[in-house]
Design a protein that fits this description.
Spore Coat Polysaccharide Biosynthesis Protein SpsA, Chain A; 8-stranded mixed beta sheet; single chain; alpha/beta; 2 domains
Length: about 400
């Protein structure tokens, strides 16, 4: 009975321990020297699929931000569009290429198409750095210039802090979701960078030096193509660096579609974790690579709500086993790990999250966890396996 209790308790203990370590090491901001010198030739590459409701606002903001940066240009890839995305982008005076392929769908294919266009340019016109932005994101001149300079100076992929926009009066469920993303994309990313020397990619706000972007395996219809690309780069020995002072703000999904968006992200993450986490941990240990080990361990930690749901379920199981003569030690250690994990989340909230998640919204956390249960059950019953676009706020449902 005691052995069975340890078998049940050990996975959540390990996951919670690593989660807590990432947060504790991520509470302090990363200090990274900012390179000077002239701005490298930079292309902001925007893959856009049916983004007529958002692309004008995005391009207007970006054009204002880079108005004084003659080394920066914008390329929009209108990917399988059935609306006015390409026309609107051209009206803003940016470069546009169109792609139509009903079989190969997804952002990865759009990025590869844009990369092929850039590669066809004369050598003195090709970018020295490429920044990938989603069509519903916004940033500022300092962040974009910093990303470009860091990618070019370090000759490694770099990742900006990608956070969801916080709006006054946002629903508690939206606030909680935004806070969970802040923990993952900022606090844990800092910790991961400190532990392994690199992080994963977030899909937008990604910067690449041209030599790496030119040969990267971009063409993918994977649910989380950014995660796949980061793992490919890691196994080539390339470490993605977090540039946290560069900020990219993404708009949350339309309220009615938040569940679909979370399903796509989290189902994709879980699929990747099931297939890649343990092999990466093994390669990290056998190859003495703390980078691969850190990425593998990061993948072993489920999304925040699922982590604590599983942990409490396992705690209940080992407590029940203790009633049938098993030792209380597994339950005690697991309870300690749960309390440490919860304490780390509180510290992250106090340090970074109080503007994102109000005290009133915290009271709705149990409801948020219950709301996520069908999402995780769907991973086993109706798993998302193909790319799909999330509807934007303000769009009309088909």
């Amino acid at each position: 009975m005691t052995l069975l209790a340890w078998i049940i308790a050990l996975p959540p203990i390990v996951a919670l321990g690593w989660f807590t370590l990432e947060i504790l090491l991520g509470l302090k901001r990363l200090d990274r020297a900012e390179p000077g010198g002239p701005l490298p030739r930079t292309t902001i590459l925007i893959p856009a699929h049916d983004e007529e409701t958002t692309v004008a606002r995005t391009l207007s903001g970006l054009l204002d931000a880079i108005a004084e940066e003659t080394a920066m240009s914008i390329l929009v890839v209108a990917d399988n569009c059935s609306d006015a995305t390409a026309r609107i982008a051209r009206e803003h005076g940016v470069n546009v290429v169109e792609r139509s392929d009903a079989e190969r769908r997804g952002k990865g294919y759009a990025l590869a198409h844009g990369r092929d266009h850039l590669a066809s340019l004369p050598a003195d016109e090709r970018p020295e750095a490429v920044i990938v932005l989603d069509a519903d994101c916004r940033s500022d001149r300092a962040s974009l210039a910093l990303l470009a300079r860091q990618a070019h100076a370090l000759q490694v992929p770099v990742q900006a802090s990608n956070l969801l926009a916080s709006h006054p009066g946002a629903l508690p469920m939206v606030q909680i979701s935004n806070f969970a993303m802040l923990v993952k994309n900022l606090v844990r990313a800092r910790g991961m960078n400190r532990i392994g020397g690199g992080i994963t990619l977030f899909g937008t706000g990604m910067g690449f030096p041209w030599p790496i972007f030119a040969t990267a395996a971009l063409a993918s219809g994977d649910l989380v193509e950014d995660m796949k690309l980061a793992l490919d780069l890691a196994q080539e020995g390339r470490k993605v660096q977090l540039v946290e002072r560069a900020r990219i703000i993404s708009e949350p999904a339309a309220s009615a579609d938040m569940s679909a968006q979370r399903s796509r992200w989290e189902h994709g993450f879980l699929q990747t974790a099931l297939s890649q986490a343990l092999p990466l941990v093994a390669r990290g240990v056998l190859g003495l690579s703390r980078h691969l080990l850190a990425i593998g361990m990061h993948l072993l930690v489920p999304p925040l709500a699922l982590l604590f749901m599983l942990s409490f379920a396992c705690l209940l199981a080992v407590v029940l086993l203790a009633l049938f003569s098993a030792s209380l030690a597994p339950a005690s250690v697991l309870l300690g790990a749960i309390m440490a994990g919860l304490g780390a989340v509180v510290l992250a909230w106090r340090k970074e999250g109080r503007k994102t998640l109000t005290s009133h919204a915290i009271l709705r956390v149990p409801g948020y966890v219950l709301w996520k249960i069908p999402l995780y059950l769907g991973f086993f019953r109706n798993r998302r396996t193909g790319w799909n676009r999330t509807r934007r706020e303000g769009e009309i449902r088909d």
